[in-house]
Amino acid sequence: MSPTVRAIAIIGSGPAGYTAALYAARANLAPLVFEGSVSSGGALMSTTGVENFPGFPGGIQGPDLMALLRQQAAEFGAELVTEDVVEVDLAPAAKRLRTESGVEYDVQAVIVATGAGYRELGLADERRLTGYGVSWCATCDGAFYKEKEVAVVGGGDSALEEALFLTRFARSVTVVHRRDTLRASAVLQDRARDNPRISFAWNKEIIGLRGQDRLTGVQLADARSGDLSEVPADGLFVAIGHLPRSDLFRDQLELTAGGHIRVQSPTTATSVPGVFACGDVVDALYRQAITAAGSGCAAALDAQRFLAGLETPVAGSGFRPTGTVASRPAEPVRPATEEATMVRGSAVETVTDASFAGEVLDHDKPVLVDFWATWCSACQLMFPALADFAREYEGLIAVKKVDVDESPVTAEKYDIGSMPTLKLFRGGEVVHTIVGAKTKSSLVAELSQFLPARTP
Ligand SMILES: Cc1cc2nc3c(=O)[nH]c(=O)nc-3n(C[C@H](O)[C@H](O)[C@H](O)COP(=O)(O)OP(=O)(O)OC[C@H]3O[C@@H](n4cnc5c(N)ncnc54)[C@H](O)[C@@H]3O)c2cc1C
Q1: N or C: fewer beta carbons within 10 Å in the chain?
Q2: Among this protein's residues, is 297 annotated catalytic?
Q3: What is the CATH number of the domain that holds 368?
């Protein structure tokens, strides 16, 4: 056995991953936690108030809750690696994980806690209009729809949460649902029905999106009669469910018909010995932060039992990852509110309405501008990747950021309608636009045709 083998790796950084990390760390297993390169903290990073996580009377902001879970896991010795795992070999005897930067880790046990992503409508224009009216995150993009008309599609808790949140800004919110009853919890249904800004389009399916440069409306078909109609909409928020993030494991772990990882309930054991799964990636039924945290705890205990039964268990600390590149050390844990205001490193400078022309349009090099806001958690999650990108291309390409609330004229001029949006300027003109949080490598890939060649 390689001397660099670690006892346990946890893939994922939502409530399930951090809880598994806390338990494994307290068991002195020094777990490695792969948090994801732009999405550490999981689904709750994109919500506001969480009122149903026990222990927080009065509620807590989603990003603050995740910062606390992360801090608690780190305090007990979990090693946090801000990278995506991109390849796994889950052979029963020895397991190997490879991250985006090419580092390989050998481990004896793996806990999969990769959560679930958003489901798309599958319409032809959905991708084209993403960031131009189509969104999956009201807390990220809702503020762009002040006194506008928006639609939300879906009938579950997420759809009604999105709709209720949007009433803070929008003049009207139409909830489009393909049935005549909602799946959402009774309390949310009551709140939505009592809200004068919310109306419902029952038994309607969205069959098309209107708009060239921006969304102007959605085309509906009646699920019973097939009659066609149209709702004017400046924004469409898609909340039609989640897709378990199990693709990475598809060929190696048994999945359910819905794509969830199959576990030997009530344990978290998967079809491969030494691999455990927890949270929303296994759960088609409850999908709550507390159930994810509970199953994360169970996964860590199951993994502990598995490791104790091995003939040659490795100790939990003092081991180094295999491969040639050292793992990135865990970021110091900061409250989400503080993290919101900073970009690490000095390579990413702030420009404002007043300085934009001089520092961006007249710049002699290409300038990548990150349009962000303090209330946008996805923007904050992307900062480390952006700072890394800026450092790597320093002297060749300038990277600047614009706070859209501080510089509304510039944000409006460039029609920023989703967070984060990055625009590449060359000779004063926009030559490329990227919508949504990206990893450093996907930034490099998307901008490759514009990046100057680097001298070795
Ligand atoms: C808008 C919204 C509001 C919600 N509000 C509430 C609420 O009020 N109360 C409540 O109880 N629940 C709420 N939920 C549900 C709750 O957030 C989820 O049930 C819970 O976060 C699931 O936890 P998880 O750990 O399984 O997965 P997630 O929270 O989804 O975390 C998984 C993490 O793993 C990362 N990951 C995935 N693949 C990899 C990889 N290959 N390498 C590294 N990392 C990877 C992901 O990027 C992600 O960060 C809400 C969900 C949403 C979307």
Answers
A1: C
A2: no
A3: 3.40.30.10
Residues 6+ positions from 447 with CB-CB distance below 8 Å = 368, 424, 432, 434
310-319 pLDDT, tens per residue?
A: 876 665 533 3
251 with 224, same domain: the answer is no
Is 314 a member of any domain?
A: no
Name residues contacting ligand 1 (CB within 6 A).
11-17, 34-36, 39-44, 46-47, 50, 52-53, 84-85, 113-116, 158, 161, 245, 248, 279-280, 287-290, 292
- Token output for 362: 């007249």
In this prediction, residue 326 has a pLDDT band, given cuts at 50, 70 and 90, of very low
Cβ neighbours around 24 below 10 Å, total? 33
**Same domain membership, residue 376 and residue 428:** yes
pLDDT at 31 over 90: yes
Mapped onto helix, strand or coil, the DSSP state of residue 341 is: coil
Output DSSP code: residue 428.
T
Note if 89 is an active site residue: no
Domain membership of residue 318 (yes or no) is: no
First to last CA, the chain: 37
- The verdict on 78 and 148 lying in the same domain is no
For 51-65, how does the pLDDT look when each residue is reduced to its tens digit (9 = 90+)?
889 999 988 888 889
Number of domains in the chain: 3
Residue 364 C-beta-side C-alpha neighbours within 13 Å: 1
Domain span at residue 411? 340-446
